[in-house]
Specification:
The chain has no helices and 11 strands. The chain is mainly β.
Length: 112
């Protein structure tokens, strides 16, 4: 059974930073492709960033240059470092592992 547990969300002012963490169960974590998605109120869930097992990354255009996804295979954890946050980044952020495992989500609110 795979479990993903996100943490690190919260309230931050525009221009601020947050780092999200996703702790995964399972001894084969290093073989998984991982991603972060987000869903704002009234909108569809969208891909934010992905990191494949080999370490390559890809980002949504809206977060390129501001967000960084990384992983620590020794800790079975994937991170999302978010900088220069904007109000439009406000959403529930979800961790995802292939093929179809999801965390419970963590709220990120960017507001002054």
């Amino acid at each position: 059974q795979v479990q993903l547990v996100e943490s690190g969300g919260g309230l931050v002012q525009p221009g601020g930073s947050l780092t999200l963490s996703c702790a995964a169960s399972g001894s084969i974590f290093r073989f998984w492709n991982m991603g972060w998605y987000r869903q704002a109120p009234g909108k569809q869930r969208e891909l934010v960033a992905v990191i494949i097992s080999g370490g390559s990354t890809n980002y949504a255009d809206s977060v390129k240059g501001r967000f960084t996804i990384s992983r620590d295979n020794a800790k079975n954890t994937v991170y999302l470092q978010m900088t220069r946050l904007k109000p439009e980044d406000t959403a529930v952020y979800y961790c995802h592992a292939d093929p179809s495992y999801w965390g419970q989500g963590t709220q990120v609110t960017v507001s002054s």
